[in-house]
Amino acid sequence: MNGNRFHKDIEDIEIDSQRLLERFLTYVRVGTSSDRKSASSPSTPSQWDLLRLLERECEGLGLEISLSDRGCLYAELPPTPGCEDSTPLCFFTHVDTSEDAPGEGVTPVVHRGYRGGDLRLPHGRITLEEAPELARYAGAPIVTSDGTTLLGADDKAGIAEVMSAVETLVRHPEVAHGPVMLVFTTDEEVGRGTEGLDFDRIVGRVCYTVDGGEEGSLETECFHAWKVVAECTGRPVHPGTARGKLVNAVSMASLLVSLLPRNESPEATDGEYGFYYPLGIEGEVHRARVEILLRDFESGEMDRRKEALRALARAVEAAFPGGGVSLSFEEQYRNMGEVEGGDPRIVDYARRAVEDVCGEVKVRRIRGGTDGARIAERLGQPVPNLFTGAMLMHSTHEWVALPVMERAAAVVLRLISLWTDSENSGTL
């Protein structure tokens, strides 16, 4: 398949590259960092700003829309005549960005003259050592932030791509397609992306998330994910008379973190290996709290990690007589690759769409999670994750190449055409 062109009766129609770029730049300028400590839904009010912008844009395209009070925007493109019985599709993206790097006041920069090598930003540079993929896109427009914030391509590139795909269908009513719904969620980055989702709206639909990274990648599995909170209880005593009496909860928390195996941390693992990720410590002498994330692809290995933490908690208690460590475990999501059932075409068509557009498909496990993990668990069917082109996500060096965004939008269109053609002509 050639670049940003797509299938059969729409093979001569192209994604509007300039419009795709313009909407992406508009979206990233809306700061939407989520906040894991907030109890609100969404966790930050700024996410409503982008939801309402998208609501207006979807209205302008004539989509049937509904914005819930929990921060989920549903926008549906009705089927063309004769395709009413086609399998309804649903594409998920999320409006929030990670709080791991500054996300407010984003100043996007379009590098139109990139000639290869390190990419200079207004503040700093992206090196080929950290981003070897950059070399593939010499001569192509590259979008970054100014180096002081993240860009927000995770997942605003995905949002721009699905919006451009649907806009293309709206502009060309002669192109046959079944029902297509876009769902924009909030708080995906803090593990709450599906909390406000009305599953009754998506039952019976084939679902995909558009939240991946590298061009050509297709993610069909993800981590098993647990959050562990360790509550360390000490015994405060005046430090002047503390010998043999004081039990410092802060020291207990520090020891617990130091006992985590360094070779099983995020910074020391890749590929198929899971990790322990101490996310934060807070507290005082009498009580301290440690939050630790556990990630692994295999359920048996996850059980091992949980038991290892219990053993470490006992070791800390032994080192601090009179102190206590209690652990609470919360499952965040499961490896969606272990979901049994569903139509095999869900994955097969995704593979074919990516291969047709990009020339090859790289089927991978996500070293993370998406809304798709929870959706797959609830629906009992796979929810593959499509690439967006976002790279070095959650960092101030995040970047995306415009041609990859065009091809990501074309993959969405190709996927729609595969489902439509198979059910209305009986053949691919």
UniProtKB/TrEMBL annotation:
Q: Which residues form a coiled coil?
A: none
Top-level class of the enzyme under EC nomenclature:
hydrolase
Look up the record and name the cofactor or cofactors this protein needs. Answer: Zn(2+)
What InterPro entries does the record point to?
Answer: ArgE/DapE_CS (IPR001261), Bact_exopeptidase_dim_dom (IPR036264), Peptidase_M20 (IPR002933), Peptidase_M20_dimer (IPR011650), Peptidase_M20B (IPR010161)
GO biological-process terms attached to the record: peptide metabolic process; proteolysis
Q: Name one Pfam family in it.
A: M20_dimer
Q: Which GO terms describe its molecular function?
A: metallopeptidase activity; tripeptide aminopeptidase activity; zinc ion binding
Q: Which UniProt keywords apply?
A: Aminopeptidase, Hydrolase, Metal-binding, Metalloprotease, Protease, Zinc
Superkingdom classification of source: Bacteria
Leader sequence residues: none
* Its EC number(s): 3.4.11.4
Report domain Peptidase M20 dimerisation positions. 227-315
Give the family per the record: Belongs to the peptidase M20B family.
What is this protein called in UniProt? Peptidase T
* The species this protein was found in: Winmispira thermophila (strain ATCC 49972 / DSM 6192 / RI 19.B1) (Spirochaeta thermophila)
